[in-house]
Specification:
Number of domains: 2
CATH topology of the largest domain: Pseudouridine synthase
Structural class: alpha+beta
Order of helices and strands: EEEHEEEEHEHHEEHEHEEEEHE
Catalytic activity: uridine(13) in tRNA = pseudouridine(13) in tRNA
Mean pLDDT: 92
Radius of gyration: 21 Å
Family: Belongs to the pseudouridine synthase TruD family.
Shape: globular
Domain TRUD: 155-308
EC number: 5.4.99.27
CATH superfamily of the largest domain: TruD, catalytic domain
Strand content: 25-35%
Helix content: 25-40%
Organism: Candidatus Marimicrobium litorale
Number of strands: 16
Number of helices: 7
């Protein structure tokens, strides 16, 4: 799905393969704080391979003999990857289990452990560190490097990645069908469907800003998002200071993650077609609260290396909620080509 949404800087400059094997897609979660050392929540920093976050959560719940809802984590991590992330397990009044059972034949490694007073919540982590290997690269290295340099300085459109919509868009199709039929689904499935619908609306509004060429510019009436923060404010008048801060990457326009609003969200409604408006109405009726997401994704500590074996190695940090595939999609047409393991 990485050609579904318009690029900000023209067509892809070539093609490449991602996720040839899990080790080609390494993600390290950066929590941004240390467990306090006391409390009833056991924090585990785990490395997983070829497992979804939900699968690992359920495995932890089984070992700890607790409900999956007692387990917290910051975000969903890829299955076809090697990922490191924190989990919290509420163990009030319970004996701590033998966590070595996690490592028995599952490909899971326990990297660190601590205790904290609060359960982990979605999106509370600071960032994710990505180390990627792109294979079968077919692109002019000089042209690609020029675009990478621009992307490092100016960022890319902050699209939700293909993972949010499922393989070949399957989750989004199921979500639309659920919206039409109104059938009851599990709590996890409901959350998955609402997230896919919400992300689809956001990407559509962002795509319109990309087509207009003002996705990284603050316009009158925009919501301004502060870099590295969830803070935001409404910009009624675009001052010179706002322009300079946006050019420096300190501020970016924010677009709505749809839900119930206490006030007018303004311009985004005017760029939506009937299908998008129907989805917005459904999201509001589902009880979601309006939130905001930056239209721009700025990588930190972004580096790359072209190798003699035809691979491209990339390293970068993205804020919580940022997708590596959104960064890659700005310069390359990529495909997933996982090796079957026996």
């Amino acid at each position: 799905m990485n050609d579904t949404w318009p690029r900000a800087r023209g067509p892809a400059l070539g093609t490449a393969t991602i996720r040839h094997c899990p080790e080609d897609f390494l993600v390290r979660e950066q929590l941004g704080f240390s467990p306090s050392g006391d409390g009833e929540h056991c924090f585990l920093y785990l490395r997983k391979r070829n497992l979804t976050t939900s699968e690992l959560r359920d495995f932890i719940a089984d070992i700890a003999a607790v409900s999956p809802v007692s387990i917290g984590y910051c975000g969903m991590k890829d299955r076809n990857a090697v990922t490191e992330q924190w989990f919290s397990i509420g163990l009030a009044g319970r004996t701590e289990p033998d966590w070595s059972r996690l490592e028995a034949g599952t490909g899971v490694e326990l990297l660190a452990k601590g205790w904290h007073r609060r359960k982990l919540r979605r999106g509370v982590h600071q960032a994710n560190r990505f180390s990627l290997v792109l294979r079968n690269l077919d692109a002019d290295h000089s042209a690609l490097e020029k675009r990478l340099l621009v992307m490092r300085e100016e960022g890319v459109p902050n699209y939700f990645g293909e993972q949010r919509f499922g393989r070949n868009g399957s989750t989004l199709r199921q979500a639309r069908e659920w919206m039409r039929r109104g059938r009851r689904v599990s709590r996890d499935r409901r959350s998955l469907y609402l997230s896919a619908l919400r992300a689809w609306v956001f990407n559509g509004v962002l795509a319109q800003r990309v087509r207009q060429g003002d996705w990284n510019l603050v316009l009158p009436g925009d919501r301004c998002m502060l870099r590295g923060s969830r803070s935001h404010f409404c910009c009624d008048t675009v001052t010179e200071d706002i322009v300079l801060r946006a050019a420096a990457g300190d501020l970016s326009p924010g677009l709505p993650l749809w839900g119930q609003a206490s006030g007018d969200v303004g311009e985004p409604l005017t760029v939506m077609d009937e299908e998008a408006l129907a989805v917005c109405e459904f999201l509001t009726s589902a009880g979601l609260t309006l939130a905001w997401r930056s239209a721009r994704l700025l990588p930190d500590d972004f580096s790359w290396q072209f190798c003699d074996d035809g691979t491209l190695h990339l390293g970068f940090d993205l804020v919580a909620g940022g997708y590596a595939t959104a960064l890659l999609g700005e310069c390359l047409q990529f495909k997933n080509e996982a090796v079957k393991e026996h």
